[in-house]
């Protein structure tokens, strides 16, 4: 039976056809006036998505590359960094600090939990902290934490706030300038509807000042080099120019819908999917679910591999499993990027059939009906 390929992993995500067509066009040279025009347009659209008046640096690489460029450009070895550690990516950023010689202190939380502004302020009251690093939306646990209140605390203490927005920027409410975020990072393969290959970094005025005195050694990731080039709508090193041209297509789609419209759509899709799976007896993993991706606990007695394999092989619905300590315990479904509210119904319907195939009791339509009801206010 013909089944369309449906990608619901939280990165990479589905890419619009218009963007894929752009990627199929001939390769152009990047040191030209034509490319600089494209790059200038890209800048304005990235600022729109980040909600910032500052430059957004384009790094050829993944979101991790973007994070490294920011981290090494604004901090010096020995700097005291407070890391909110509540998931695998948060653990990665703590390891970054240790790798580059920072003095890292962690607020450690169970997976699926998030820190509060009060917890952060209690740590900052002791003094000496140069930066706070936190993940806005932890992809591997599908957990979102409060950010605006934490930004107020870091601003009061004159501390840099470095935010991994890789699965929040472009999917969930995020206002860099108004909230007071100092460093914001995302990647092309999540909400921005592009294949992997580009990372993005924006710096506040305070963070830009920090780059002038930071002494961590870097070269390719030195954002001072990117700042020098960006005034000419250019990059210091060879850019992934075909991806940049395609990114422009996807960002124009976001602008046409409006970023606020994207946030609303993403939330509607997440709400519908959660209503559907909960009606089928599943439990959500996170105590504070992100709109961009949902983590669902597997039902007792259901083999995780058999569940995901049935979705993939019988229905061509591709979801992500749990990783590390959560392997076999959860599955994750994406709602961000090129995903509309009816995609939520597709996944819930496929899950109903998969439960039946695995010998689980299921009432067909119960999950889909609950998802439909949740969508009633979306139109």
Q: Which residue ranges are poorly predicted, with pLDDT under 50 across at least 5 consecutive positions? A: none
Architecture of the largest domain, according to CATH?
3-Layer(aba) Sandwich
Gyration radius (Cα, Å) is 21 Å
Helix run count: 14
Question: What average pLDDT do the residues reach?
Answer: 96
The percent of residues in helical segments reads 40-55%
Quick overview:
The chain is an alpha/beta fold and 379 residues long.
Quick tags:
Aspartate Aminotransferase, domain 2; 14 helices; 4-stranded antiparallel beta sheet; 7-stranded mixed beta sheet; 379 residues; alpha/beta; Aspartate Aminotransferase, domain 1
Characterize the structure shown:
The chain has 2 domains: 6-12 and 259-377, Aspartate Aminotransferase, domain 1 (Alpha-Beta Complex), CATH 3.90.1150.10; 17-257, 3-Layer(aba) Sandwich (Aspartate Aminotransferase, domain 2), CATH 3.40.640.10. The protein is 43% helix and 16% strand. It has helices at 17-23, 33-50, 63-74, 88-99, 117-124, 148-156, 176-179, 205-213, 223-230, 241-257, 259-279, 304-315, 341-357, 366-374, and strands at residues 6-7, 56-60, 80-85, 103-108, 129-135, 137-138, 143-144, 160-164, 183-187, 198-203, 283-284, 293-297, 317-318, 320-321, 330-334. A 7-stranded mixed β-sheet has the order 2-10-9-8-5-3-4, sandwiched between helices. The protein has a 4-stranded antiparallel β-sheet with strand order 11-12-15-14, covered by helices on one side. A hairpin with a 4-residue loop joins strand 6 and strand 7 (143-144). The longest helix is centred in the last third of the chain and has 21 residues, at 259-279.
């Amino acid at each position: 039976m013909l089944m369309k390929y449906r990608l619901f992993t939280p990165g990479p995500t589905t890419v619009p056809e218009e963007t894929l067509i752009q990627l199929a066009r001939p390769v152009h040279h990047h040191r030209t006036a034509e490319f600089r025009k494209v790059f200038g347009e890209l800048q304005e659209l990235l600022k729109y998505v980040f909600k910032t008046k500052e430059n957004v640096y384009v790094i050829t690489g993944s979101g991790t590359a973007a994070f490294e460029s920011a981290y090494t450009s604004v901090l010096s070895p020995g700097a005291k960094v407070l890391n909110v550690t509540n998931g695998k990516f948060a653990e990665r950023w703590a390891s970054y600090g240790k790798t580059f010689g920072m003095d890292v202190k962690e607020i450690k939380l169970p997976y699926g939990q998030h820190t509060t502004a009060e917890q952060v302020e209690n740590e900052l009251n002791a003094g000496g902290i140069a930066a706070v690093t936190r993940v806005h939306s932890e992809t591997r646990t599908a957990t979102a934490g409060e950010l605006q209140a934490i930004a107020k605390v870091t601003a009061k203490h004159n501390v840099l706030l470095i935010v991994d927005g890789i699965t929040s920027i472009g999917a969930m409410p995020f206002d860099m300038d108004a909230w007071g975020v100092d460093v914001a990072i995302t990647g092309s393969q999540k909400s921005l509807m592009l294949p992997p290959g580009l990372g993005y970094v924006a710096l506040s005025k305070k963070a830009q000042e920090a780059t002038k005195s930071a002494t961590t050694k870097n070269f390719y990731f030195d954002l001072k080099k990117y700042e020098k080039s960006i005034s000419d709508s250019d990059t210091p090193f060879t850019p992934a120019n075909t991806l940049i041209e395609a990114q422009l297509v996807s960002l124009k789609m976001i602008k046409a819908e409006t970023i606020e419209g994207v946030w609303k759509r993403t939330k509607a899709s997440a709400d519908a999917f959660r209503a559907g799976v909960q009606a089928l007896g599943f439990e959500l993993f996170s105590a504070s679910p992100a709109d961009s991706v949902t983590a669902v606990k597997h039902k007792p007695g259901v083999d995780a591999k058999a569940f995901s394999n049935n979705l993939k092989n019988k229905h061509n619905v591709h979801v992500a499993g749990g990783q590390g300590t959560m392997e076999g315990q959860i599955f994750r479904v994406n709602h961000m990027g090129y995903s509309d509210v009816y995609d939520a119904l597709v996944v819930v319907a496929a899950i109903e059939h998969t439960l039946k195939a695995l010998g689980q009791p299921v009432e067909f339509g119960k999950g889909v009906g609950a998802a439909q009801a949740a969508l009633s206010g979306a139109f």
